[in-house]
Design a protein that fits this description.
By secondary structure, the chain is α/β, with parallel strands linked by helices. It has two domains: about 5-220 and about 290-335, Alpha-Beta Barrel (TIM Barrel), CATH 3.20.20; about 230-285, no CATH class. The chain contains 15 helices and eleven strands. The chain has helices at about 15-30, 45-55, 75-90, 100-105, 115-125, 160-170, 185-200, 220-225, 230-235, 245, 250-260, 270-275, 280, 290-305, 320-335, and strands spanning about 5-10, 35, 60-65, 90-95, 130-135, 140, 150-155, 170-175, 205-215, 285-290, 310-315. Strands 1-2-3-4-7-8-9-11 form an eight-stranded parallel beta barrel, surrounded by six helices. A two-stranded antiparallel sheet has the order 5-6. The protein is globular.
Amino acid sequence: MGKAAFGVELFQYLDANTLLEEVQLAERLGYDSVWLGDSQLLWRELYVLLGAAAVTTSRILLATGVTNPVTRHPSVTASALMTLQELSRDRAILGIGVGFTSLSIMGMPPAPRAVLRRYVEQVRALCRGETVQGERAAMHLAFGAAERCPPVVIPAAGPKMLRLAGEIGDGVILQSCPPFPGEVFQTMLEHVRAGRAAAGRGDAPFTVYHGLPAAVHRDRAVALGSVKSHVAVGLLKPRWPLSERALALQDAVRAVYTANAYEHMSAAANARFAGVIHDDVVAEFAIAGTPEECVARCRALFAAGVDEITVRLYPMAGQSRLASLEAFARDVVEPLRKE
């Protein structure tokens, strides 16, 4: 197989200096991209950290994973992106969706798809230096440059968002589907392809990312236990049929998650879900287990049409997330790249 591309999503529940150390390590270990989340009340500020990462790395792509069209005005996002492009020498990616915890924790609903579409159009135009009609006046970004406009990647799980990602995105982050390629997985890709065809963009460059919680450990139970807080999110609002085992856990998962929303996808929440989410359900939502199991799952995803696997790593067995970064690179990324 060709180069197995891997990104890593690092949610900023850790302090800023540790986050920066993780980004630098990810580059040294050979990861292709790093994605930082945008949830202002939960995690450290996205663009501050991306700016720091830009001047302390030289190769790895730097992505918003993901921002939203509500908490930041399009002019603010465009300015931040183009500044990041300058600092990073064109390594920025705009990952943007309709909003999740950044909005829900303030009691606000996700943005409608039409709002996301319009927002992406405005941000792209501003990044290119074009004039955009705002709510009260026309505006343009003084340092916009068409040749430096970053790619736009849309996270999607349901049919309508998948189609929209194909229509307006330069890539899609597949979410909330089993890691084993099968009928559901191929149906998701078909929705993306339909969106690209409808927009006349079938021949344009496009990247398929698959975002999944991940953990590799010789002790399978240790790996599975480290991703349960993230698996819980997949059980909250599934877009595709779940197994009977997973369906039976939904009410219990929602009760624990609602009571601890500020621990959204954090390592601290894994202990809360340890007795709620069974190990046999984890495999439906994560790349987690022994090195041999994780390599096999990743190999199947690449064969099914994924261009880059974006892993979301957590600490294991009392160690740091830095150790998880190293373990996944050593036990999964390197063996696949040698094939």
